[in-house]
Specification:
Elements (H helix, E strand, L loop, with lengths): L20 E6 L2 H16 L4 E6 L1 H10 L4 E2 L5 H4 L4
Parallel strand pairs: 1-2, 1-3
């Protein structure tokens, strides 16, 4: 779910802000760490990031349903093939 913004503020350069991106992350420490790095890079480029966290099966379902914009993970056929 993307939070509602009460007012629109322009960036320092005068541009309108980008819509928030919902970044999916799997509920395991190494996935959380890599998602934090990806989120920071996106924020450094002016992007607002909202996290959605779940276990593998639920997160792949959220991605399939369009509930997350991006999933920070690796999809490996041997490990994740059941969620293709």
């Amino acid at each position: 779910m993307i939070p509602k913004v009460a007012s629109v503020r322009r960036t320092a350069a005068g541009a309108l802000p980008k819509a928030p991106v919902t970044l999916g992350r799997i509920s395991l420490s190494f996935h959380e760490a890599s998602a934090a790095i990806v989120a920071q890079v996106m924020r450094n480029h002016g992007q607002t990031v909202v996290f959605s966290e779940a276990l593998h099966e639920e997160m792949f379902d959220r991605l399939r349903r369009g509930e997350v914009d991006l999933l920070c993970s690796a999809w490996l056929p041997g490990s994740h093939g059941t969620w293709s």
